[in-house]
Amino acid sequence: MAENTVRTAVRAGMLVGAVAMAGIAGVPAAGTAGAEARAVQVEPLPRTSEYVVAIRAPRTAEFSVTITTGTAVRPNSVPAGCIPGTRVVQQVVAVEDQAPAGAPVPARSVVECALGPLDAGAERRVILPVDDLHAGTREIIVELSDGPTVAEQFRWEHRPFVVCAPFDTAPAWTNDVNQDPAAPAPARATGHIAGTARPGARITLTGIDACEHPIDRSMVVPDSGEFRFTGLIPGHYGLLDGDGRVLRHVELSDGTPGVEDLVVAEAD
User: Fold this and answer.
1) What are phi and psi of 37, to 5 degrees?
2) Domains in the chain: how many in total?
3) Which of 40-49, 120-129, 250-259 shows the lowest mean pLDDT across its residues?
4) Is 50 exceeded by the pLDDT of residue 32?
5) The dihedral sign for the CA sequence 146, 127, 112, 154
6) Is residue 208 in a domain?
7) How far apart are CA 235 and CA 264, in angstroms?
8) Is 209 inside any structural domain?
9) CA spacing 20 to 30 A to 188: which of 2, 30, 167, 203?
10) Which residues contact 178 (CB under 8 A, 6 or more apart)?
11) Beta-strand (E) ranges in 21-103?
12) 77-132 pLDDT, tens per residue?
């Protein structure tokens, strides 16, 4: 039976309807080959506040994965994909008696995930569910090991997930572990797509946003020749002309929430 050992009080709980919008920049361990040869890859898993750690065994051996999170990130359960013998522990990173009275003691999480024997080239997926605790460090480090030998290391900076509100409500930009998922925080859907087009032309914005809501909005370009679609969140969008032909593809992200000065020319 997998063990979940917690040495400090943690408020955990999966956030319903979360969308992973984290930007991941993987850093392999020194001496490893390029991305095509990596034994560890990490991707966010949409809508579930989880990361997928994809393992490809570089040789035949018995492997384990150690996942260390910063103090602002907390795994809320033992990851799926690990075998019995796996455990999650909290390591205090400050001396408790030096902390102000009543203050929470910073702790990082360490997941010791046993994978067992793997043949060379065998693949395994480990699903890491996390909560964002807001204050603290956000780096997450994954190490694939064969006994005492570290085969590869992968690290990235966690960003808060987008929590999706009900369909008819704009989404909130927080995944506060104390927030009731049924009552999202005040919305801040502040993204936009703006530019210029021929006055009198009909421009349609379509796409799927990060909450998997279909977007379909139209407007007639005013005499100024300027158009603007507002109230958007990260997602994949397209601008269409009046005949439904795609004029531009636009992607919004947490790092690029708005796009200005697009010049949209109607197709011939």
Assistant:
1) -110, 5
2) 2
3) 40-49
4) no
5) positive
6) yes
7) 19
8) yes
9) 203
10) 11
11) 40-45, 50-56, 61-69, 73-75, 87-92
12) 888 999 998 988 888 776 545 555 555 667 888 999 999 999 999 999 999 888 77
